Amino acid sequence: MCLFIFILIVILIISLRFQRSIDVKYLTKDDLIKYGNVNGSRKRIPRLIHQTYETLNIPPIWNKSIQSILETNSKDFQYIQWTHKQMKFFVKKHEPKFYHQTYVHYKYEMQRIDSFRYVLMYHLGGIYLDMDNGCNYPLESLLTTIETLNPNSTFLVLFPQEDTFGIQTDFIVSTAKHPIFRQFISNLHSFNHYYILHHLTILLSAGPLFATFQERFFRQTNEEIVRILQNQVYKSIFWKTNGGSWNLILNDIHSYLNPIFLYQKDIEIDHFNSKMNSKDLDKKSIQISSVVFRQEDVENF
């Protein structure tokens, strides 16, 4: 049965490479130049940056990437870091059916991490960003561009374009309550199968391949916009550390599927008031300790 499902998925991937129900709405370099500094655009995307990790003790390999995010965006954004415990609490509170039916039954922790970001984007919105993404420029201009391109649309979402096929989910920008994430959440249970290989299972059940299928079949309207950030623009905004665990573990499925998706693991909550000492960044783990939300504070979300 799993082999049959896998074959169907491969056929679906091939067909999706060559067809789409509507034209893709890309966000280009020219769009950023033209609209990035526009004043007076109606803000609909929450100025929140979400990241996840198992604890507040961030591994040193991500110190520089996190520092770059804090330094380039502290003026305009609130930074929120989630632990696994808080992720579980948030999903249970906001999506109890999905939590009891699927979330707690996932075989791999990465499936919970992936699915959490969809629940998070639907209920809170803002920016989700993997730990291995370093930031070259302030993200405010990107959000301003998204909002200016569709000034009358209520729901906006942006995914990065994958090098070869589909979309990535290591960086997501969205308004709260975008219907595409309701579609994501509704279909997670149906995709929860074992697909021959460990890491392929993660990709197809809740990861970037799952997201690619959902994005391709989503019927956007003038009120519900989906944009794809062109790959070259994405790479100019961010730089990658070498610590993404998926750089290594995806090698065993590369012979099956072309797209390589860079991931990250896990995460807890904080604000930009945190005073980050840049000395010895490569030697010490970052500890975000200024204004950490207690568990009861998370209930407010």
UniProtKB/TrEMBL annotation:
Give the Pfam families listed for this entry: Gly_transf_sug
What is the name listed in the Swiss-Prot or TrEMBL entry for this protein?
Uncharacterized protein
Where is it found, in Gene Ontology cellular component terms? membrane
InterPro entries (alphabetical):
Glycosyltransferase_domain, GlycoTrfase_DXD_sugar-bd_CS, Nucleotide-diphossugar_trans
Keywords of this entry: Signal, Transferase
Q: Example GO molecular function term? A: mannosyltransferase activity
- Cytoplasm as UniProt keyword: no
Which N-terminal stretch is annotated as signal sequence?
1-21
Q: A single GO BP annotation from the record? A: mannosyl-inositol phosphorylceramide biosynthetic process
